[in-house]
Structures are given as structure tokens and as C-alpha cells.
Design brief:
The protein has helices at residues 16-22, 33-43, 94-100, 108-115, 131-134, 138-141, 159-168, 192-208, and strands at residues 30-31, 51-58, 70-74, 85-88, 104-106, 123-126, 170-174, 180-187, 219-226, 231-234. By secondary structure, it is an alpha/beta fold.
Length: 243
């Protein structure tokens, strides 16, 4: 015998605002980028300025080093995030780093502070001639994704350029063990056109970072969401890229 009290009831997790947001999204539809962004902006309910987050499922096996996807990309409209940057360089370049906008500048003193687990910056940049001492804290910074790396532009001779790029909205990406790349690419309060530019720039960077050993379908799924809200599936054809 059917219990009428439970018939046609669908339990949606989360609080009231989350449930209200979920019912406004068609979970079976693939949205064009502009439409997906519009929906997410409409259902955003947090009292703070939420971040627009992107999650892309790639057709790679990160267990193999030759299928690792990693890189940096500059967001055309910025990220809306204030980042704290430390520059590790020789003393004769301290003032140059400060004028470029670095929040913390130093040499061995920064390394010693890291050894004491004082990790108080979002990005650590080093000049090539300081990588010898930076290696002392590789086991501390590495697992946190903070180790200066030439491939990510965080080991550079041009301090001014890299600091300004990171401050302006350059973000790093790296595929996780499940083959997914996650990143925050802007704020919900950005206008829709700027957010769409950021989405396309991020997707383009992933396509350019495609490993030679990756076979078959490379970009499988793309979801957009807000910090506190539900996600929408994006129609990959709306990216306008050769996938």
C-alpha cells in the first residue's frame, strides 16, 4: 500500500535558500554560457560576494605524468580576489619587488618563517638565483601548491611583470586525481559579459594545455556554480573552441 504522505516528495538537501535555488535550475539541461551565468547570478543568495567557480572534467589519467594538465591563465576581467604575494630575492632587488606590489619581500628570513609553518601568503615568487634556498622548504610549500615553479611563472627574473600579472588576476590550475580542474574565475557581482570572457579564457587555456598523450574526448564536462549555490551544466559548443 502506497503511503500518500510520501508520494511525489523529493528531498532536496541544504537550507531553504539552497532548495529555492535548486528548483530554478533545470538539472537536465545544458546551458549556453551566457544563460548559465544569468541563472547563477539570479539564484545567488549568500550575504557575501560569491565566487563563480568552474569545474571541468578532462579525458586524462593524472596517474601518468605525461597526462598531467597544469598551467596559468590571466582572467580578462580579473578575479575580484585580493592576493597576498611574497617575493624571495636578493637584497638588492627588495625595493624593486616592493614597488611592483609585493606584500612581503625577503630572502632567508622568509624561508626561516616558512620552516616555522608561517604560511601567510597566497603566492610565493622566487628569482632563479634564490631557488637553492627555496628548496629547503619544498616539502612544506609543495603539498600546498605554493612552491615556486618556472612552469607557473612563479620563478622569474622579471619581478615587476609577474607580480603585476598575479595581482591583476592570473590564476593557476592543475588537474586533480579524478581528472577534474577546479578554479574560481570571478565574482558573481561582475557583469555577465565579463564572466563569460573569463569562462572562455579558462577553457581556452585548458585546451592549449592538452597533453600529447591524451586520447579521445579531452574536455568531457563543464559545470559552473557559485560558492554557496547549485551548479549548472554548460553546453561545450557554446565555448566556440576546437575541442
Amino acid at each position: 500500500m502506497v503511503n500518500k504522505k510520501t508520494t511525489n516528495r523529493i528531498k532536496i538537501p541544504g537550507g531553504k535558500k539552497m532548495r529555492e535555488a535548486i528548483v530554478k535550475i533545470d538539472e537536465n539541461s545544458f546551458y549556453k554560457i551566457a544563460d548559465g551565468i544569468t541563472v547563477l547570478k539570479d539564484v545567488a543568495f549568500a550575504k557575501f560576494d560569491e565566487t563563480l567557480e568552474i569545474a571541468v572534467q578532462l579525458g586524462v589519467d593524472p596517474k601518468h605524468s605525461d597526462q598531467m594538465v597544469r598551467g596559468v591563465v590571466s582572467m580578462p576581467a580579473g578575479t575580484g580576489k585580493t592576493v597576498k604575494i611574497a617575493v624571495i630575492c636578493k637584497e638588492d632587488r627588495y625595493e624593486e619587488a616592493r614597488q611592483a606590489g609585493a606584500d612581503i619581500v625577503g630572502g632567508q628570513d622568509i624561508i626561516d618563517s616558512i620552516k616555522e609553518n608561517n604560511i601567510n601568503c597566497d603566492i610565493y615568487i622566487s628569482t632563479p638565483d634564490m631557488m637553492g634556498i627555496v628548496g629547503q622548504v619544498a616539502r612544506i610549500l609543495g603539498p600546498r601548491g605554493l612552491m615556486p615553479n618556472p612552469k607557473l611563472g612563479t620563478v622569474a627574473t622579471d619581478i615587476k611583470k609577474i607580480v603585476q600579472e598575479k595581482k591583476a588576476g592570473q590564476i593557476e590550475f592543475k588537474v586533480d586525481k579524478a581528472g577534474i580542474v577546479h578554479a574560481g574565475i570571478g565574482k558573481v557581482t561582475f557583469n555577465a559579459e565579463d564572466l563569460e570572457k573569463n569562462v572562455k579564457a579558462f577553457a581556452d587555456a585548458l585546451v592549449k594545455a592538452r597533453p600529447l598523450k591524451a586520447k579521445g574526448v579531452y574536455m568531457k564536462k563543464l559545470h559552473l556554480s557559485t560558492t554557496m549555490g547549485p551548479s549548472v551544466k554548460i553546453d561545450l559548443s557554446s565555448l566556440g573552441l576546437n575541442l
